Amino acid sequence: MNFCSNCGHPVNLKVPAGDTLPRHVCGNCGSIHYQNPKIIVGALAEWDDRVLMCRRAIEPRYGLWTLPAGFMECGEDSLQGALRETLEEAGARIEIQGLYSIINITYVDQIYLIYRARLLDLDFCAGEESLEVRLMQESEVPWGELAFRSIDLTLRAYFRDRPTRRFDLFEATLDRRHSAARLITPPAATD
Amino acid sequence: MNFCSNCGHPVNLKVPAGDTLPRHVCGNCGSIHYQNPKIIVGALAEWDDRVLMCRRAIEPRYGLWTLPAGFMECGEDSLQGALRETLEEAGARIEIQGLYSIINITYVDQIYLIYRARLLDLDFCAGEESLEVRLMQESEVPWGELAFRSIDLTLRAYFRDRPTRRFDLFEATLDRRHSAARLITPPAATD
Q1: Residues of chain B positioned with their CB less than 8 A from the CB of A164
Q2: Contact list, B76 vs chain A (CB under 8 Å)
Q3: How far is CA B148 from CA A15, B52, B68, in A?
Q4: Domain match, A8 and A93 both
């Protein structure tokens, strides 16, 4: 950020009064421009023993596989966002079962919210941002060709949990590009 | 948004190629400026049968009561954000038990992530943004003087769940300023 989006004058990085972190502050109109992490919403949709996967037709990670997911938009809630992304990228209609994973990626300031869902019919098709959409059994998942570590973590947790069908919320943080995931203690639903 | 934060030229609202929604696009450098919902992280911290509440020393809702919570910052994960806000606003150290509520507020493009936590000691004090910090039993909660509906919903769910100490994730959406909350089906941890 170089210029104030309100008045067009140059901004400076400084700590506003009463704040603790440097922000982009306009020297002309005084606007403070906060930057915050962005939310990515998506779905892990099941059909029998298979999950719905998309091969990306866009950068980054063109040609690699992912779950339908994308940036949450203003005006929608996280669940509506997951439904929308699944429809846009995989042409698929789903029923949400519940939030399944929260993956923080602090080095790119993103947080993934992935819902577990049931695919409602087999009438799906690749959207504009997908090269191909497929239902995959665990043995068919191309682990070496997944687009994002958040998706890898979510799928591994899912296949670990699936035999018991007990899908407690899975929470993890990726702190650095090449570090191992820091798994957050699974929340105790009872204590 | 009136001006491009990259080059300072005026922006226009238009739907970029391949997109479906209008965005602020710079006519000079071509930058697309996306706007997305913001995350608020906080904690519902317990000490025996009491919860930690803060009375706001800042606008909006000066003088009203809330749980320690605030905007998630870049570079931290959601759990670190909840710890930081609790320390800043209530001078309190907590141990996180797990994510407890997700409240979408679509008319202001916010999503609350409130963690359930255990207060570690009684050495807390009002931070700069609080007039007062208190531990409250259920009967002491000033329901008519709560700062935010997200906090009201979270506290009501908590006191409903507490007798059994089964704290399944609570998810709700507030679509309009005066509408009732739309409760999202509690996620089935098993199915």
Answers
A1: 190
A2: 106
A3: 27, 16, 12
A4: no
How far is the alpha carbon of B163 from chain A, nearest alpha carbon, in Å?
11
Would you call the peptide bond into A186 cis, given omega within 30 degrees of 0 as the criterion? no
pTM of the full structure: 0.94
Summarize pLDDT for A166-189 with one digit per residue, the tens: 999 999 999 988 778 888 755 445
* Nearest CB neighbour to B39, from listed A39, A165, A186: A39
* pLDDT number for residue A180: 80
A188 is a domain residue: no
Distance CA B73, CA A38 (A): 10
Residues 6+ apart with CB under 8 A from A17: none
How many domains does chain B fold into? 2
Q: What residues make up the domain containing A13?
A: 1-35
Kindly provide the ipTM of the predicted complex, given to two decimals. Answer: 0.93
Q: Which of A2, A5, A7 to mutate to test the interface with B (most CBs of B within 10 A)?
A: A5
What does the DSSP 8-state code read for residue A88? H
Q: Flag whether pLDDT at B181 surpasses 90.
A: no
**Which residue bears the tokens 């509440």?**
B53
What gap in Å lies between CA A174 and CA A111, rounded to an integer?
A: 10
pLDDT in tens, B38-86: 999 999 999 999 999 999 999 999 999 999 999 999 999 999 999 999 9
Smallest CA-to-CA distance from A61 within A140, A133, A153, A129 is with A129
User: Which CATH number goes with the domain that contains B20?
Assistant: 2.20.70.10
Q: Please state, as a whole number, how many other Cβ atoms lie within 10 Å of the Cβ of residue B132.
A: 14
**d(C-alpha A72, C-alpha A42), whole Å:** 9
- With CB atoms and an 8 Å threshold, state whether B21 touches A96: no
Cα–Cα distance, A65 to A61 (Å, whole number): 8
Contact (CB<8Å) B111/A39: yes
Query: Among A141-150, A172-181, B11-20, whose mean pLDDT is lowest?
Result: A172-181
Q: B111, A35: Cβ pair inside 8 Å?
A: no
SS3 readout for A27-54: CCCCCEECCCCEEEEEEEEEECCEEEEE
* B11, B75, B102: residue with CB nearest A99: B102
